[in-house]
Amino acid sequence: MLHEVAQRYNKIITVEDGTVVGGFGSAILEFMAANNYTPEVKILGIPDRIVEHGKPEELHRECGYDAKSIADAVRELAGIKVITGNLV
């Protein structure tokens, strides 16, 4: 399946409720490198730093993988600029 994804798309976003270091996104990057694929890959998940306790929705927002952050990452990767809530 990853071969198909890499051949079909040149931009990929991974989202994981786990660490970005050595996690799912890292495995995707390793696969891409091992197979000479060169898509732009954005990894969203828990950063390699201490994250304080809180409600899941607060932590997802803080770590950048809540719904808004995912949508923002998609727009950024697609080159769509957002100015005060309006798409440009």
Element layout with pairings:
Layout: H1 2-8, E1 11-19, H2 24-34, E2 40-46, H3 56-63, H4 67-78, E3 82-83, E4 86-87
Parallel strand pairs: 1-2
Antiparallel strand pairs: 3-4
Question: What does this protein structure show overall?
Answer:
With 88 residues, the chain is an alpha+beta fold. The protein has a single domain (2-87), classed as 3-Layer(aba) Sandwich (Rossmann fold), CATH 3.40.50. It has 4 helices and 4 strands. It has helices at residues 2-8, 24-34, 56-63, 67-78; strands spanning 11-19, 40-46, 82-83, 86-87. A two-stranded parallel ribbon has the order 1-2. A two-stranded antiparallel sheet has the order 3-4. The longest helix is centred in the last third of the chain and has 12 residues, at 67-78. The mean pLDDT is 92.
Question: What is the CATH first-level class name?
Answer: Alpha Beta
SSE string, helices as H and strands as E: HEHEHHEE
Low-pLDDT stretches:
none
Write down the overall geometry. flat
Number of helices: 4
Question: How many DSSP E strands?
Answer: 4
Alpha-carbon distance between the two ends: 33 Å
Into which percent range does the helicity of residues fall?
A: 40-55%
Overall domain count: 1
**CATH fold-level label:** Rossmann fold
Overall mean pLDDT stands at 92
Strand content: 15-25%
**Radius of gyration from the CA trace?**
15 Å
**CATH architectural grouping:** 3-Layer(aba) Sandwich
Q: Name the strands of the widest sheet in spatial order.
A: 1-2
For the sheet with most strands, the description reads: 2 strands, parallel
Q: What is the assembly state of the chains in this entry? A: single chain
